[in-house]
Design goal:
The chain is an alpha+beta fold and 419 residues long. Helices cover 29% and strands 27% of the residues. Bound molecules: FE2/S2 (inorganic) cluster and fe (iii) ion. Fe (iii) ion binds next to loops.
Length: 419
C-alpha cells in the first residue's frame, strides 16, 4: 500500500495528519500488527480480583482474555480459548471459581490453566492431559505497575516500567489519592462510537475543545447554584515520552480529592479540608496541592486514558473497523471514601463522563462528525495539529502537543514494523 506520511515540520510549525489514516482498512491492519500486537495494553485493576479464585473476562485487541487469580492468589492472564476446538472457555463476565469448564465438550481447566479433566479420557493416550498444547495458553507477558495490570502479546520489547516512561509517575499520582488503596467502583460504562479509535485518543487529551464542544455542560454548571468554584481553566501539556502525554490544569469544578465547591456546603468543606490535610502530611505540600487542585487527562499510548478530573475515569477503546470502536470505562476511587463523597464522585462519573452524560455524547458527536467528514479524505486530505508548535514560552493545556506526541509514536511504530 501507499505509505501514509505525516507532515511534521518544526521549522515552519506545520503538523499535518492525512485523513486516510482514519478510513483505510490497510491502515487498521497495520495498526493491529505494529501497535496492538506489540505495545503494553491495559487489562485491569488489582481491586477487580480481590481473592484467590476471582476472575473476569475481557476482550483486548480482539482477543478474548481470562484475567484471574489462582488458588495461591497469583494473578494470571490467559487467552480465553479452548485448546480443543477453540470455544471461549469462560463465558461469565466475572466471578470466583477454582476451575473453568468449556461448554462445548466439557474439558475443564484449573485456575492456573492446567487441563484438569476431560470427558471420555479413555479415548486419549495416557499422557494427553500433560501435553503443553492442551493447557490454556497464557498471554505472553503480564506485568503490573502498582495496581494497574497490563499485557503484551509480544514476548519482545521493553518491560512495562520502561514502556510507561514518565507516565509512570502520573499513574502513581492516581494511586496516591488514597492511603489505603484505590478500587474500581460502580459498574462498567460500555459504548461504541462510529469513528476511528485515534479520534478518541486525541479527544481525551484535547483541552482546546472544552469551551465549544462542552458549552452545554459549562452553562449547566453556571446555572446550577454553587456547582462552580472560582478557579479558572488553565494549565500545561506535557510529553511523557513513548507516545504518552498529559494535560494538567486547574478547573472550576469540584474534585472529591480535594477541591471544594459551594454546592457541597459547609459540612462538605470540613470533610474536604480534612482530606487535604491528610494528603499534605502524607505527601508534602507541593504534591498534595497538585493532587487536590490540578486535573489531569492522560493518554498512555496507544489506548489507555486516565481522566483524573471531577471523578477518575479509566478508559480503553479498540477499533473493530476503521470507522468503529468499542469503549470501556471504569471509575476508580479511594477505598476509604465517605458515602457522601462517593455519591458525588459517582454522580460526576455519570453526569459528565458517562455515555448518557453532559460531555461524552458531545464528544461522540464531534468524533462521528469528523469521521463523516473523512468521506472527503481524498479531496480535503489533511488534519491540522499544529496548535502551540510556534510557541516558545511553554505549552498551554489547550495546545496540541499531546496529539503530536501520540502521532509521532504512531508513525514511528508503523515505520518500525514495516522495516
Ligand atoms: Fe472446548 Fe471442545 S472446544 S472442550
Ligand atoms: Fe470532551
Amino acid at each position: 500500500m501507499r505509505s501514509i506520511e505525516i507532515v511534521d515540520n518544526r521549522d515552519d510549525s506545520r503538523f499535518l495528519v492525512p485523513r486516510r489514516a482514519f478510513v483505510d482498512d490497510a491502515v487498521l491492519e497495520r495498526e493491529y500488527d505494529a501497535i496492538f500486537s506489540r505495545c503494553w495494553l491495559y487489562l485491569g485493576h488489582a481491586s477487580e480480583l480481590p481473592d484467590p479464585g476471582s476472575f473476569l473476562t475481557r476482550t483486548v485487541a480482539k482477543r478474548p482474555i481470562l484475567f484471574n487469580r489462582d488458588k495461591d492468589g497469583e494473578f494470571r492472564a490467559f487467552f480465553n480459548v479452548c485448546p480443543h476446538r477453540g470455544a471461549m472457555v469462560c463465558r461469565e463476565r466475572r466471578g470466583k471459581s477454582r476451575a473453568f469448564m468449556c461448554m462445548y465438550h466439557g474439558w475443564t481447566f484449573r485456575a492456573d490453566g492446567h487441563l484438569k479433566s476431560l470427558p471420555g479420557s479413555a479415548g486419549y493416550k495416557d499422557d494427553f492431559k500433560q501435553d503443553p498444547q492442551k493447557q490454556l495458553t497464557a498471554v505472553p507477558r503480564l506485568e503490573r505497575f502498582g495496581d494497574f495490570f497490563f499485557i503484551n502479546f509480544s514476548k519482545e520489547g521493553e518491560g512495562l516500567a520502561d514502556y510507561l516512561a514518565d507516565a509512570g509517575d502520573y499513574l502513581k499520582l492516581v494511586s496516591e489519592h488514597s492511603s489505603s488503596g484505590m478500587a474500581v467502583v460502580g459498574g462498567t460504562q460500555e459504548y461504541s462510537i462510529r469513528g476511528n479509535w485515534k479520534l478518541l485518543a486525541e479527544n481525551s487529551v484535547d483541552g482546546y475543545h472544552a469551551a465549544s464542544t462542552h458549552a452545554t455542560y459549562l452553562d449547566y454548571l453556571k446555572n446550577a447554584n454553587g456547582a462552580l468554584g472560582a478557579t479558572p481553566l488553565e494549565g500545561t501539556g506535557r510529553n511523557l515520552r513513548n507516545g504518552h502525554a498529559v494535560i494538567e490544569y486547574s478547573a472550576p469544578w469540584g474534585r472529591p480529592i480535594a477541591s471544594w465547591i459551594p454546592l457541597w456546603g459547609e459540612e462538605g468543606k470540613t470533610e474536604i479540608d480534612a482530606i487535604y490535610s491528610e494528603l499534605s502530611s502524607r505527601l508534602g505540600d507541593e504534591r498534595a496541592d497538585r493532587l487536590a487542585r490540578q486535573n489531569r487527562n492522560m493518554i498512555i499510548f496507544p489506548n489507555l486514558v486516565i481522566n483524573d478530573i471531577m471523578a477518575i475515569t479509566v478508559r480503553t477503546f479498540f477499533p473493530l473497523k476503521p470507522d468503529y470502536m468499542e469503549v470501556n470505562a471504569w471509575a476508580l476511587a479511594p477505598v476509604e471514601e465517605s458515602e457522601w463523597l462517593r455519591k458525588y464522585r459517582l454522580f460526576n462519573f455519570t453526569e459528565f463522563l458517562g455515555p448518557g452524560g453532559f460531555a461524552t455524547p458531545d464528544d461522540v458527536e464531534a468524533i462521528e462528525k469528523c469521521q463523516a467528514g473523512y468521506g472527503a479524505a481524498a479531496d480535503v486530505p489533511y488534519n491540522d495539529i499544529s496548535k502551540g508548535m510556534a510557541r516558545d514560552n511553554g505549552v498551554s493545556f489547550d495546545d496540541e502537543l499531546q496529539m503530536r506526541c501520540f502521532w509521532r509514536e504512531w508513525d514511528r511504530r508503523l515505520k518500525m514494523a514495516e522495516a
